[in-house]
Each structure stands twice: as structure tokens, then as C-alpha cells.
Amino acid sequence: MRAMVIDDSRAIRLILGKMLKELGFDVIDAENGAVAIDRLKASEKVDIALVDWNMPEMNGYEFVCAVRKEEAYKDLPLMMVTTETEMSQVVKALEAGANEYVMKPFTKEMITEKLTLMGMAVS
Questions:
Q1: Chain-centroid distance, C-alpha 34
Q2: Looking at the domain assignment, is residue 42 inside a domain?
Q3: Which runs of E-coded beta strand occur in 42-112?
Q4: pLDDT in tens, 5-64
Q5: Which of 3, 24, 117, 118 has its CB surrounded by the most CB atoms within 10 Å?
């Protein structure tokens, strides 16, 4: 299975990528939503995307909205992983089509739990 980590922080991309690789995922990353959309459209098969909210060019919320408008990606599991802790932001992301929401800072156990809730097999 392949996961895409979308975050403008290289450190977060590396941390999440390492966690996901340990769980058996192949990982690709993108530094913002616009790059992530380009990678998806370049036919890179992705089984789940972990998305930060606050990024330049195209933020995570805009990415979720854009992905949900595309028939090809309407079922792509999306997990927001962000510092946005306001309940209104959580609701906004879930209403836009995010499947799960994790607040930073996070642990491997938190990510594993959310992946399990989303039906993603973890080793």
C-alpha cells in the first residue's frame, strides 16, 4: 500500500514517512496540496493521504475539497494531521471530506489507531 504525506515541513514529512514505512507502507510526499494534486494526476497510485492544514500555495483544506470534487479520488482515504485544534476546524475538515483528524503533536500509536479505524491494514 502507498501513502502520501502532504506537509510543508520537511521534518514532519520525514517523521510521518518513517512511521508509515515501519507500518509497511510505501511513502511518497508533497510539500503542499498543489504538488500533491499534480502527483495524483501523474497517476501515482495512492491508498491514503495524510494532509497538513497550514501550507502555502494550496492548504490541506483546499486539497481535501479539490480531491473530493474529482470522481477518480472520491474514495481516497484522507487523514488531516495538523496543529489546528479548534473544534470548528475539525468539523470543517470532516464535512469537506476528510475521513479522520489527528492533532499535532502525534505519536505512532495515534497514527496507527486512526489507520486501523480507516480500515488500512497495518503490520
A1: 13
A2: yes
A3: 48-51, 78-82, 100-103
A4: 999 999 999 999 999 999 999 999 999 999 999 999 997 789 999 999 999 999 999 999
A5: 3
Q: What's the average model confidence in pLDDT over 87-93?
A: 95
Q: Is residue 87 part of a domain?
A: yes
Q: pTM of the entire structure?
A: 0.95
Domain count, the chain: 1
Range of the domain at 38: 2-117
Residue 39: the pLDDT is 94
22 found inside a domain = yes
Give the span between the Cα atoms of 47 and 40, in whole angstroms.
11
Unique residue bearing C-alpha cell 474529482: 70
Task: Return the CATH number at 111.
Answer: 3.40.50.2300
**Number of Cβ atoms within 10 Å of the Cβ of 107:** 10
Please check whether residue 1 is in contact with residue 25, taking contact to mean a CB–CB distance below 8 angstroms.
yes
